[in-house]
Q: What sequence folds into this?
């Protein structure tokens, strides 16, 4: 068992946006009893003792936590590299300056499209202008900036514009991530899954931009595993190098594992060290012993670790099956059918979406 390197600290699931692709759990009401400042302080200290080096402060919208500056300062005092993952709503200049003083190392701002109306429509609230202004503040204060865009049927045709926008604000890195279908995104999959033609066009644009912007801006493109032959090596293997603490103190190997039928582990009742080492939620799929065929005898079993446990559960109801995104999976037909539907001629614009609800209190 290795030490975890990264902690995803989901400080709150409250969020001023209402994106239909959100991967937060559907049962948001179960997470209203958030850890307090003192409890987060202990979590960070225990994470540091465990070997964690990077702390991603996320949500929901982490800026809704009034104690965010204190949490950042605590993480900084422990020597953790801190990354704020934010919509930027609430990142005023004065808040940004406080976070800079507290030692925040990196900022990642999400945007929904390169054109204001489209971005605001997908976010479910007017936000584009404030996001672009916040990006300017981030660069002025000397932070490295990552611009993150979750790609789906309604914005993937805007990739060229998104890259231009990222370049114009001086982003150091842009992350173009095809939607992962968990939480609200799973509920809206039929409306979000792009067509093959859309993906192929986007990939041509990304390749050309990478060539043009080499040495100036890193472009990360997270492919859609629904269209691949093999699944993604999710989290680098279950409970291998990452852990997530949810707003109410539950500990998970990844942010999408809440629905899996595994016993709960919580920092309210146990230490992070014991949870990482011994709790069933961590040990259930660690390593390769749990694997069924065809993974068990597959030469890629330590390349992709059988794919994503959460996706296997979502699609088959059994987290211990081979990820159906793999073409060798006996359940691959489930993915093939979704892809066929996405290429069936409809534009997707007529497929209803249920965005996650906004909630700031
Ligand atoms: Fe990966 Fe399992 Fe598919 Fe092999 S069979 S490629 S290990 S998911
Ligand atoms: Fe949970 Fe892939 S998202 S294992």
A:
């Amino acid at each position: 068992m290795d030490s975890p390197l990264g902690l995803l600290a989901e400080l709150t699931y409250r969020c001023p946006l209402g994106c239909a692709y959100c991967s937060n759990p559907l049962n948001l009401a179960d997470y209203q009893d958030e850890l307090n400042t003192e409890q987060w302080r202990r979590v960070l200290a225990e994470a540091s003792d465990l070997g964690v080096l990077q702390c991603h402060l996320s949500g929901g919208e982490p800026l809704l936590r009034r104690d965010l500056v204190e949490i950042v300062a605590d993480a900084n005092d422990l020597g953790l590299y801190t990354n704020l993952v934010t919509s930027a709503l609430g990142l005023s200049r004065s808040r940004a300056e406080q976070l800079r003083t507290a030692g925040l190392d990196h900022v990642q701002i999400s945007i929904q499209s390169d054109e204001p109306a489209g971005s605001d429509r997908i976010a479910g609230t007017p936000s584009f202008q404030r996001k672009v202004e916040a990006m300017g503040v981030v660069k002025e204060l000397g932070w490295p900036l990552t611009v993150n865009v979750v790609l789906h049927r309604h914005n993937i045709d805007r990739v060229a514009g998104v890259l231009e926008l990222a370049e114009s604000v001086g982003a150091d890195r842009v992350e173009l991530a095809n939607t992962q279908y968990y939480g609200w995104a799973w509920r809206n999959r039929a409306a979000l899954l792009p067509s093959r033609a859309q993906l192929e066009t986007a990939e041509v644009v990304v390749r050309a931009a990478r060539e043009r912007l080499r040495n100036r801006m890193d472009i990360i493109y997270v492919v859609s595993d629904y269209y691949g032959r093999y699944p993604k090596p999710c989290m680098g293997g279950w409970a291998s190098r990452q852990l997530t603490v949810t707003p109410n103190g539950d500990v998970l190997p990844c942010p999408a594992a809440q629905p899996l039928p595994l016993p709960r582990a919580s920092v309210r009742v146990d230490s992070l060290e014991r949870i990482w080492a011994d709790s069933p939620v961590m040990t259930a799929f660690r390593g390769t012993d749990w694997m069924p065929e065809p993974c068990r005898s597959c030469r890629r079993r330590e390349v992709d670790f059988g794919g994503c446990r959460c996706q296997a559960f979502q699609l088959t109801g059994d987290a211990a099956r081979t990820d159906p995104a793999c073409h060798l999976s006996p359940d691959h037909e489930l993915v093939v059918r979704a892809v066929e539907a996405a290429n069936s001629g409809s534009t997707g614009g007529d497929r209803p979406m249920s965005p996650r609800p906004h909630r700031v209190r």
